[in-house]
Amino acid sequence: MDSHIIKLHKVNFYYGQTQALTDISMNFGQNRVTALIGPSGCGKSTLLRLLNRMNDLIDGTKVEGEILFEGRNIYAPNIDPVEIRRKVGMVFQKPNPFPKTIYNNISYGPKLTGVTVADMDSLVEQSLRQAVLWDEVKDILNKSAMNLSGGQQQRLCIARALAMKPDVLLMDEPTSALDPISTAKIEELIEELKKDYTIIIVTHNMQQAARISDETAFFYLGNLVEYNKTEKIFTNPDVKQTEDYITGRFG
Amino acid sequence: MRWRYLKQSVFFGLVSASALIITLVLGGIIFYIITNGYSVISLDFITKPPTDSMTKGGIMPAIIGTIYLTVGAIAIGLPFGIASAIYLTEYARQGKIVRIIKIGINCLAGVPSVVFGLFGLGFFVIFLKFGSSILAGSLTLGFLILPTIIGASEEALKSVPQTFREASLSLGVSKWQTIYRIVLPNALPGILTGSILGIGRAAGETAPIMFTAAAFFTAKLPSSIFDEVMALPYHIYVLATAGTNIEATRPIQFGTVLVLVGVVLGIDLIAIIIRGYMRRKKRW
Amino acid sequence: MTRRIKEIIIKYIFFLFALVSVIVLGLIVSSLFREGLPVFKSVSLKDFIFGMEWYPTYDPPSFGIFPLIFGSFIVTVFATVIAVPLGVLAAIYISEIAPQAIKESLKSVIELLAGLPSVVLGFFGMVIVAPWLQETFDLPTGLNIINASVILAIMAIPTISSISEDALYAVPNEFKEASYALGATKYETITKIILPAALSGISTAVMLGMARAIGETMVVLMVAGGAAAIPESIFDSVRPMPASIAAEMGETPYGSPHYHALFAIGMVLFFLTLMFNLIADYASHKFRQTGSATL
After folding, report:
1. Which tens digits make up the pLDDT trace of A14-43?
2. Which chain A residues are within 8 Å of B98, Cβ to Cβ?
3. Which of C18, C34, C123 sits opposite B253 (nearest CB)?
4. CB-side neighbour CA atoms (13 Å) of B78
5. What ipTM does this complex have?
6. Which of A178, B165, C29, C270 is most buried by its number of CB atoms within 10 A?
7. A4-246 fold
8. Chain A partners within 8 Å of C4 (Cβ)
C-alpha cells in the first residue's frame, strides 16, 4: 500500500524569469501533518499553492516536473484545476470569510459545485463541529460571518474547506494573524483533523511546527534543504543550515 | 525666516482662493438658475406639452423624451460596460490585445460629443436606416457613456479583495461562478454608483442627439423606438437660440434649465451620497 | 470536461464584449471617413485645411476651414490659461491643505461642476456673461472669444483638478516626511517636492482638459458668436469647428458637398482630440514617478 498521497518529482517553478523553486522532489504522507518551514521568500508558500494550482491565478508563471496527486499529474493538460481544488482544500494566512452569513459561508462550496447534499443543515453542523466552532455559532448561523472574531473567522474558514470533504488540507500560515489563545485552539484542531485528513502547513513559527507536525521540510532560497521526521529535524538535523535556522541563528 | 512664512501665506491664500472661486462659480450658477427658474415650475409646466409655437405651456414631451433616451443609453451602456470590465479585471492577462482594448477605451473616452453625433448620424441614422429616432439616439449616448461605465466598473471590481476570489476558487468553485456569486454581488453597489455619474452625463448631453434623435417640436409622445423625441437639453438650445421669440420665452428657458439641472445634479448628488455612505460602511 | 468548455465559452463571450469599445471606435473612424472623404472631390486637402474662406452655402461654395481651426485653437488656449492655475491650485488645496471635511465637500463640488450639462453652461454664458461683457466693454456683441473661453474653462476645471489631485495624492508620503524632517516649510515642500513629483500627472491633466475644451460643442455653439473669420481681438466672435458642425448639419441636404465637408471637419476634430489624448497618455507614462522602494 502506497501511503504517499502527493508526490513531487523534480519540480521547478518560475515567476516570469525568476526561479522560485528548484528541483523539488518530496512525498507527502497520507493522514500526516507536514510542516513547511524556512525564512521569508524561501518558496514554502509557493510550493503550497502549487499543490492546488492556486498559482495558476498569477500571470507569467511556469511549472516544470511532476506533481502527482493520488497518482495523477495535476499539471497534465487534461486535468481541470477546479476538480483538483475540490479535493485539496486551502486555509489562508488571513481569515477570509465571505461577506455572507455563517451558514452560507459553509454551504457556498457544496451548493455551487453541484455536490448533491441530502441534508445541507447537517453538513453545515458537521463541518462546524469538526472545526470546533459549532457551540459558539449555533445560535447565530444567519448572522454575518464578518461579526466573528479573527480566531472564529479562521475556524469558519477551516469549516468551509472541510464542507467540501477534501482529502488534503493546505494551510498557509493559518495562525499568523491570530492571538495566542486562538492559535492554541487551531493547533488543537489540527491535531484532531489529522485523523481524517492529510495536512500540509506552512508556518513561520518553529515551536508550532515542532508541536503539531509529524514531518518537517526546511526550505531555503527555493531549495528543499532537509526533509525528515519533525523530531529528528528539531533535535539532530543532518544539515548545518537547518540547525542554524531552527536555533535562530538566521532567518 | 519671516520671508519664508510670508511666501507661504501668500501661496496658501492663492490656493484657497482658487478653491473658493470654483465653489462660488458652481454656487453662483445654481443660485442664478434657481432664482430665475423656480417661478415657472408648476405641475402644469411639468405635465403639459408646449403651446402657441412653444411660447407657452409646459415641457412634458421633452422630459419624457429625455427619460426614454437616458433609459435607452443605460440599457446599452451598462451591460456592455460591466461585461467589458469583467473581462479586463477578471479574465484578461497582460498582453497586446488587452493593451489595444485599453487604448481603444481611452480614445473612445476622448471622442468629442459632436463627433459621436456625426457617428450616430452616419452610422445609425443613415447607414443602418434607423432614421432620427430614440433608437439611434440611445445607441449613440450608450456608446458615449461606455468608457465611464467601464472605468467605474473596473474600479469597483478591483476593490473586491483578491482573498474572496482565492477562497472561492480554493473550494473548487469555477471561475465564472466565483465571479457571479462572489465578485459581482460585492462590486455591484460600486458599479452602479459609479455608473450613475455616466448616466447623468447621458441625460444632459445635447450634441450627440441633435442629429440622431431630437425633434424641434412634436405634439405627440413617441409610440415606438423609431420615433423622434423632444429632449430637455435640445429644447433649451432651441428656445435660447432659434425659438420664435427668444426674449419672451426666457422664463420657459430658465424653467427648463432648472428641471434639467435638477435631474442631472440630483442624479449625481444621489450617487455621491450613496458612495460616501458605502465607503463608511465597508468592512473589508 | 463540459464545465471546462463552458468556462472557456464564457471567457470568450466577455472578450467579445470587451472588444465593443474598439469596434465602436473603428465604426466612428469609418463613418467619418465614409461621409467625410467625398468632400475632397470638391476641394483639395490643402485648400480645405488652409483655406481662409468658409462659405459652404455660396455658389460656388468655398470650403476653407482654417478660420474654424483657428477659432477652436484660440478659445482652447485661453480656456487653458484660465483653467490650469485654478484647477491645479484647487487640487493642491484639496490634497495638501484642506481639512478633511472641506476636502470631501470640495471634491463633491468639483464633481457636480463636471456634471453640469454643457447646454446649461452655454445658456449661462448667453444670458449672463454676454450681456455683462457687452455693457461693461461697450461691445457690439458679448458672444465672443473671451466669453467662450471663460465658460470652456469652467468645463475644463473639473477634469484638470481631479486628475491633478490624483497625481498629488500619489506622491509617496515618505517624500513629504523627508522634506519636513529637513526643516522645510509646507510651502517649500509643496513647490519643491510634491509638485515636481506629480508633474507627469498634472501634465496629463492639462492635456485632457484641453482635449475636453477643444471638443466641447454646446458652449462654443452658443457663446462664441459664430463668425467664421480670423479674429483681431479677444472681443471678436469666432466659429470653432464643433460649432460649425452642430449649427450647419441640421440645414444641410444629405449627400451634398457641404454635408461631406462637415464630416471632414469631424475627422479633423477627431484626430486633433486623439492627438491630445495620446500625448496625455504618453505624458503619464513617460514621466511616471517611480514610487517609493519597498523592502
Report:
1. 998 899 999 999 999 999 999 999 998 899
2. none
3. C123
4. 17
5. 0.90
6. C270
7. Rossmann fold (3.40.50)
8. 80, 82
